[in-house]
Amino acid sequence: MRPQRLLLLIIFLTVLSFFIDLPKNYPLKLTLGQFKIDQVISAPDFNFALGSFKISKEIYTHLGLDLQGGTHLILEADMKEIKDQDRNQALDSARSVIERRVNFYGLTEPVVQSAKVGESFRIIVELPGIKEKDRAIAEIGQTAKLEFREWISTQSADFSLNNTKETGITGKDLKRAAIEFDPNDGNPYVAIEFTDEGGKKFSDLTTRLVNQRMPIFLDEKIISDPTVQEPITGGKGRITGQFTTDEAKKLARQLNAGALPVPIKVLEERSVGATLGQESVQKSLRAGALGLGMVMVFMWLYYGSLGFLADVALMIYGLLSLAIFKIIPITLTLPGIAGFILSIGMAVDANILIFERMKEELRSGKQWQIAMELGFGRAWDSIRDANFTTLLTCFILFNPMGWGFLPSFGMVRGFALNLAVGVLLSLFTGIIVTRTLIRVFFKGSWKGFMSSQVQK
Amino acid sequence: MRYKWVYLLISSLVLVPGLFSLFKWGFKPSIDFVGGTLMEITNVQCQDAGVAAKVRQIFSENNVDLGTLQSSGEKTCLLRLKTITSEQNEKIIEVLKKEYPPIQQTRFETVGPILGQELLQKTFIAAILAILGILSYVAYAFKNLKFGVSAILALFHDVLVMVGIFSLLGHFWKVEIDTLFVTAVLTTMSFSVHDTIVVFDRIRETLRKNPGGDFETMTNKAVTETMGRSLNNSLTIVFMLLALLLLGGQTTKFFILALLVGTISGTYSSPFVATPILVLWQKWEERKRKLRG
């Protein structure tokens, strides 16, 4: 693409993200000489319709528990049918299930803790201040009756519970269900894992039911009717079929809803404030702004007007990231903000690499134009390798396939997502944006740039 | 690379006490890992910053580690703290009542960890997988396993420096390891490899430009050439972190400190740990070849 066109694209993206970054209903009052501005500004919402395809999304910054608080839920586990010595264990696995549900729901950085008060076994869940709270609570606190059954008559057209009999395997025996993808064809399936005892029962059942159907009921409604292809003896199986990812996710969620070792109920729900004081947040933001200022001054002093252009690219980076945080959305917590500020430092790295490279090319007597293009070209190798490894780390920590042996923990995932967005955007602004800015605007002499070289 | 042994000495000056402390005293885990007590008190206005600060002060004066303090509704406050006995609890409520007479305790329960054993283990597995991934990628991109292994050894160096320093801080200044520390370690891991690759990339290029050149001389050249960039890059990050450390909020102080330690170690380890390992290994191989040939 020609630099002028790229520049237009960059300006467009910057302006767009500026509007997305605007706070909600922020009263703006400014007096500039005779001009008086007094109005409420607000970020636009997304509302588009393309034929039957509609997107409607309210955009707001998602703030974490530490910055804005959220909902505090107390769930109580009913231990009536659990032996005394097994109760702690049961509470612990119930906690894991709840945690999985919360993370499955996609809320980032919740708090899930087990708690005991006298004889009452509880699970405390704290969700960051979200708007879809009620739906989340409904799903998190849901206990459903999950049963693996068998058909009485396979000839009958009756697919209801009446035509089935018990197998003795219920949600208590299921440890977890998760969506996974077949490495060969990429199709989603639902992986199921049983408890030790459940695994034994399941092994007996599947041995008996080979080549027959084994319906699964949730709250007396059929959710899946897979055919048993072989005896499943290891306690781990998979339900395959022509699933779309959403269907597989839904099934996994339904199975998880029933995979609770004990019934639970929501005891109490209330809102809680931020764990960090407003003061602490403001202090950090101010410190971040100061640090950013220092970085920008440093770049300007050290690399002259090229450094200034890199600073402009850095500001674009800031605006774009904030907009993306809002759109995805990524829940912002104080450590997240610290990480973001740190990623600004890393974003400058690409520019430093390129500029140092350009200096070398200039020193070896190349023309300015050639040195500039070579600087970008040669620095790319190391930028690519360095960033690829970071993205690889993000991928594993984010665990997009939901592998059971990797964490699907809000905090770790939030971190990975944050870092990945930072890396990808810094590649864009550090290379494409800076290069375009230099190609279009840098007409001045490069003597100032050269005189800043480090003496050996 | 003449001063290999000096670099080794500098690294061990930091590493040895840290590792000693780690094995002898371990960590001081925060309630994020071990759980503790959840307490609720009512009739006190915690959304008021002054009141919150006073409550915090009362807890620390009574030697109780208070984790978080949240307001809930008008006059209720939720506190997360290290496990305390009921005597300790009674004592602290008494002190609180002196300061705010209408205060009442409405909840006192034992809570489990936020980041439990299972999650910690899985995060660890993920980190190991990431390391293996990085190792294979670097070995592939540089067509040489030595580069991959040296980069990973430098990464271990940086993680051990962080872990060691925080073990010492924990023993002498009661600094706790929390979930934020885990994030800081993960960040450092990425940063460390990121930085090392830039240095290695230059070594690869220098070697390619001067076929037949002496490996050690070429690495020296590459390290000198990338020094400006390495320092400038770290300086920008250190500026940011120092500003946050000195002027930022109290709660994130040790998180920022962990990142600062990681950044400095990560920058240091690229030319002074990863590269010497690479050079020593290469020389050792050459010597072996000579002996054989």
Write up this protein.
The complex is a heterodimer of chains A (456) and B (293). Chain A has 456 residues and is an alpha+beta fold. Helices cover 49% and strands 21% of the residues of chain A. Chain A contains eleven helices and 15 strands. A four-stranded antiparallel sheet of chain A has the order 6-7-5-15. Chain A has a four-stranded antiparallel sheet with strand order 9-8-12-13, with helices on one face. In chain A, strands 10-11-14 form a three-stranded antiparallel sheet. In chain A, a hairpin with a 6-residue loop joins strand 10 and strand 11. In chain A, helix 7 (278-327) crosses helix 8. Chain A is elongated and about 85 Å long. Chain A starts with a helix and ends in a 5-residue tail after the last helix. With 293 residues, chain B is α+β, with helices and mostly antiparallel strands. Helix content of chain B is 72%, strand content 10%. Chain B has helices at residues 4-24, 31-34, 49-61, 86-99, 117-141, 145-173, 179-209, 215-247, 253-292, and strands spanning 36-42, 66-72, 76-81, 104-111. Chain B has a four-stranded antiparallel sheet, covered by helices on one side. In chain B, strand 2 (66-72) and strand 3 form a beta hairpin. In chain B, helix 6 (145-173) packs antiparallel against helix 9 (253-292). The longest helix of chain B has 40 residues, at 253-292. The two termini of chain B are 26 Å apart. The mean pLDDT of chain B is 87. The interface between A and B is large, with 80 and 79 residues. Strand 6 (111-117) of chain A pairs antiparallel with strand 4 of chain B.
Distance between the ends of chain B: 26 Å
- Total helical elements of chain B: 9
Q: Which value, in Å, is the CA radius of gyration of chain B?
A: 25 Å
Number of helices of chain A: 11
- Biggest sheet character of chain A: 4 strands, antiparallel
What is the strand tally of chain A?
15
Instruction: Tell me, briefly, the overall form of chain A.
Output: elongated
- In spatial order, strands of the major sheet of chain A run 6-7-5-15
Query: Largest chain-chain contact?
Result: A-B, 80 and 79 residues
* Weakly predicted, low-confidence segments of chain A: none
Overall structural class of chain B, as computed from helix and strand content, comes to alpha+beta
Instruction: Report strand order across the widest sheet of chain B.
Output: 2-3-1-4
What kind of oligomer do you see?
A: heterodimer
Distance between the termini of chain A: 39 Å
- Residue fraction in strands of chain B: 5-15%
Query: What is the string of SSEs of chain A from the N terminus onward?
Result: HEEEEHEHEEHEEEEHEEEHEHHHHH
Helix content of chain A: 40-55%
